[in-house]
Specification:
Blueprint: E1 2-5, E2 12-13, E3 18-19, E4 25-26, H1 31-38, E5 42-44, H2 46-51
Antiparallel strand pairs: 1-4, 1-5, 2-3
Length: 61
């Protein structure tokens, strides 16, 4: 998944031992990154969200 730090946040990348750059990067979907997403420290990169396939609507909708 591609993530960026939330505005005003500095996030450590535990795999690369550096700071997550403001422009974001692809990171593995691990418990660490899910926690950062849930606590608001990072956001999903908008370019990644727009390239995700659209959810199928239920039949009859």
């Amino acid at each position: 998944m591609r993530v960026k730090p939330a505005p005003g946040m500095t996030i450590v990348d535990p795999d690369r031992h550096d700071i997550l750059p403001a422009e974001g990067r692809n990171v593995p979907e691990t418990a660490y990154w899910r926690r950062r997403l849930n606590d608001g420290g990072i956001v999903l990169d908008a370019s990644e969200q727009s390239s995700a396939p659209a959810a199928a609507s239920p039949k009859g909708a």
